[in-house]
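Case study 2.
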Amino acid sequence: MDGLIFIAGLALFLCLVVLPISVVVSLGRGNRNQREIAQLTLTITQLQKQVDDLRFEETGRSRPTPTPVSQAQPVAVKTRHDFAAHAAQQSTVKPAADMAAPPPVISPWESAVPKPAAPVTTIPHPPIADKPAIDKPQQPKNDLLSGLVGWFMQGNPLAKLGVLLLFFGLAYLMKYTVERDMLPIEFRLMGAAVASGVLLWFGWRLRVKQTMYALILQGGAVGALYITVFGAFRLYQLLPHMLAFGLMLVICAASVGLAVLQRALSLAMLASIGGYLSPLLLSTGGGSYIALFSYYLLLSLGILAISVWQPWRPLNLLGFVFSFGVAGLWGINNYLPEYYLGCQLFLIANIVIFGVLCLALTLRAQLPGEKIIDGALLFGPPLIGFGMQYLIVRHWEFGPAFSALGFGLAYLLLAWAALKRYPSLGRMLAVSGLALGGVFTTLAIPLALSAEWTSMAWALEGLGILWLGREQKQIRMSLSGSGLLVLALASALVALGAGMTTLSFTLVFAVLALTWLAVAFLWRDLESDAAFRQVVSRSFLAGGILLWLVCLLGFAGRLPLNYGYGAFLTMALLTLSVVLWRWAAQRLAWLELRYSIWLLWPGMLAMLMFQLIDLDSLLAFGWPNLVWLLALPVAYWLLKREAGTLPLLRLQQGLHLSLFWMVVFALGYEVFWRTMRLPWGMDEWRLGLQMGFISLIILATHGALRKGCWPFAEHRQLYGAIALAPLAALALLLLLVGNVFDGVSLGWHYLPLLNPLEEGAGFALLALVTLGLFVRREYPQFAVLLKQALPLFTIAVLFWWGNGAVLRALAYYADIAWRADTLWGSRLVQTTFALLWMLIAQIVMVWSTRCGQREVWFGGAALLGIVIVKLMLVDSARGGGLARAIAFIGVAILVLIVGYFSPLPPKAVRGKEPNVASERGNV
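Prediction:
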């Protein structure tokens, strides 16, 4: 039953694994043969062209004109025999110095061109370049798995697969003999050793006829010998430990020797794997780490010796993986501080072997013109090695820091040596060495210093690397330096979370801000994509400005000052910073930095809000308000000097408008805060002062416009209308609300029109009329509308406040309580308003009749109608009385007078003047 299962498994393995691999290999070989045939055809054509050129030069004839590309003629391709005969005839001709040597002819030629005949095959062929194209060397793959897969697929993969299956077969056979107890264990092991020796001898005999096949047999034999020794020691305890170890070492050395003699990478790989696995397979758990590391170091030196003759990259990678992998696994579980010296020497030796010497030997063996550097061997040993170095020195205070510094200095020295030793490859190696040296030197800083100093050191180092990359036009180096500044910011944030003193905070963030600004400036001139360069430069500029502001806020906030004084100090420092930015932007012709000066505006707004929210009053802080005497002149100076550099007019207007509103808002809020704290009974003063302040701002602004003062005259419409629109709306609101007050202040006598309330209203009306006239003059599109609306608005406000003034006078002098029901029920008030409105209506109607204003006459008539309705519905509803009689008689007399002096004006006839006399006669 076991035999059937074995046969079925073998058949399934052949169908699912062997057959697909064979098909893939066959297809790969077919494609490779086709490419080789095409390359040989191209080479022959080029050689034919060169021979023809030499022939024409010898005979002195001119070469015929080549046909155009669009009319390419067929090119005759001769066989190898014809070409050889023709070349023999021309052997006396001296070839040109720049003639390219043809590549060697390989086996696909025999199958591509038959020998017996010499036919001429014509194939269309495009024009050929003067020099044959040279295939670019393949870049080495940096992972071990791809290297092992490539090794298996090269050469004769079927033979390799057969050897593997042979191992399985022998294993099953030994299992079968063990289960049946057919032979003693000594005979079984001896038979396996003899069979392995015979297989090795047979492979050695075939090394000339079938090289690849012979190497696979030798590799299988070596593997069988390894397994035999291992089984004799581990499974059956027939060999002592030292003897088994010695046998495996002999097998390894012999196999490596065979591999070097035959230049067989596969055999060397197999021997090395067995050598590295031997101490692991034969380990009893009580061995010395010195013996293990010494043995591995011996194997590493063997690989280094092999690299002198055969620089095999997979073999180097294999040694690197085993040496560092096994050492790392052992160190994680078994390392103690007393093992330091041995581990340190082993680590240094392997880094030198794999990271320096093997790499150098690989470079020495490259063909001229190749520039292939093994990234795995260049970066793997130092990076992994430093991780191990950290583990063995971390118990010392500055052990990791000095280790990182040592690694950095070593690779900086290696970069210098590589540039001297390999002039062609030196630049690439030097850049790699500089990168590693810079990384390790950078890493030494946080391992030795605190986060604050680390942040500053990284910032300065990143700036230096960026400058070096800019000078050498290396965009990657510039990006590395920029990334280091980001790491410096991260270190500063870590330090901030852990707690920092005022001096440390200021110093760290000042250095960060200045370095970020310097990086932003350097990126402006780097040779890279313009859009990318601009994005990086502006990003670092914004970050530098933000870091500078954080530095100012943190410095002022951490000082032991009285409450609120830190904000004033921040405002003063921001103002000085803006002046400094403007100076630097002018000297450096840096437009983006020039735009940052406008950050003074949000700074002033934030300061204003802080004052108003915190203490409700600007003057409550006392002498620190002197900072506004610095900020406001600087702000207007910037508007005077720099607003013209802004790309959009809207931005300029926005800056002017926002600054004006901030000033007005600050002053207005202070006036409001002061007036709201007036004692009880001073409401009239409160409203009067508020309306007076608004009127003063509007009138003063228009006064400055008339005198041509800057900045008002430069932006007439902005300051004369748009900036004053909120004040006009507020003044109108106060005019509507203020008229409901009685006008009497505590301790003051009421005088009509000479009290704070009505005087403030008068100034407010004057300011609104002035604003309206300015808008009608400066905005022609509103001229027609305002010509009619402005007089109506003025009349309406005067009527509203005139009635209020009369009502306040009646209430004060007639001793009427200032309540709505009392005033409404007063016959004196009702009669006075009836007569007053009738008088106003009469004046309006008489004036409109004389001026021919029919619409105005109707307005007066409407007011007259309101008076009559009031008499009927209000005055008469209160019963008899002298006041009612006087009201009716007075109104009647006034109506008669109006009817006599102010009849209805006639309609205006186009082209004719209104005939007032005829109208009056008709009445």
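Residues 2-59 form the longest helix (58 residues).
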